[in-house]
Fold this sequence. Notes:
Keywords: Glycosyltransferase, Transferase. By secondary structure, this protein is an alpha/beta fold.
Amino acid sequence: MSKKKVLVVTQEMEPYTIAKDISTTVRGLAPYLQKNQMEIRVLMPRYGTINERRHRLHEVVRLSGMNIIIDDNDYPLIIKVASLQDKSTRMQVYFLDNEDFFKRKFVHKDKAGKYFDDNAERAAFFCKGVIETVKKFGWPPDIIACHGWMTALIPFYLRTAYSTEPLFQESKIVYSLYQDGAEDHLSEDFAMLSSINALSEEDLAPYMNGNKPDLHAGALKYADAVIKGTAELNEHNAKLLEDCELPMLDIQGEDAPAASVEFYHTLLEEEVVE
C-alpha cells in the first residue's frame, strides 16, 4: 500500500515559534505521521522571529518566484526550507516568506501588544501561497490538516476558486480549531481583502458574522472534518462545534498524534495498519 500524503499547514510550530497549543500540537503530530507510514509536507509562515542561521533555512529557488495578489497588489512569494531532526526521523519544513508581511520581528502583535492591522492580508497571502506552492510540488495530498486561524481560508479557496484543480480533487480537509484570539481582531474589510479570482465579498459571507470576521465558522462550512485542538474554547467557538455536523475528533495532548492518524484513516475509509 502506498503511503498516504498529509499536507500539514500551520501558523506555528516548535521550535520555530514559542510553545503554545498550536505549535506544540503540530510539533508532536508531524513526525508521528512520518513514522507511521505517511508522507508529509509541513508549510508555515517564515516570521521575522525565526532565526534563519540557527535553524538553517535556505531558499528553494525552484519554488520561489511566484506573485500572490492581495487587494490588487502583487506580493512576491519566497519559499525556504529547513530539516528538522526528531530522534530517528528527519523531516522538511517549508516556510512561506514575504518582506512586506513577515519580515517584522513579531508574529501577530507589535511591540506594544497591538494586533497588526494587516493580519487579514497576511492570512490571505499565506493561504493562497500554500495552495500555489503545493501546485508547484505537483503533490496531491490525501489529507490537508489546517492548524490555526491563519489557515482558515484554505478550505474555502480549495472548494471554490480551486474546485477544478485536479491535484486536490480527492483531498480531505481537516480543520483544527484552537482557542487563540488573534482572529477576533481582524479588519472588517476581511472579506474584500480575501477575495480571489472571480470570487467576491458575497462568496465569503460564511466567514462574516455581521461586520465582524468569523474565520472558524467559515472554515467549518467548507472543511470535511474538524479536530478540537484546545480543550477549553470560548462560548462562541464551543457553540460552533456543538452545532457542527462534521466528523469530529476531541482529543488533545500526548494521545492526539495517534488519534489523529486513526481519524485520518477513517476519513479515507481505510483500516489502520498496526
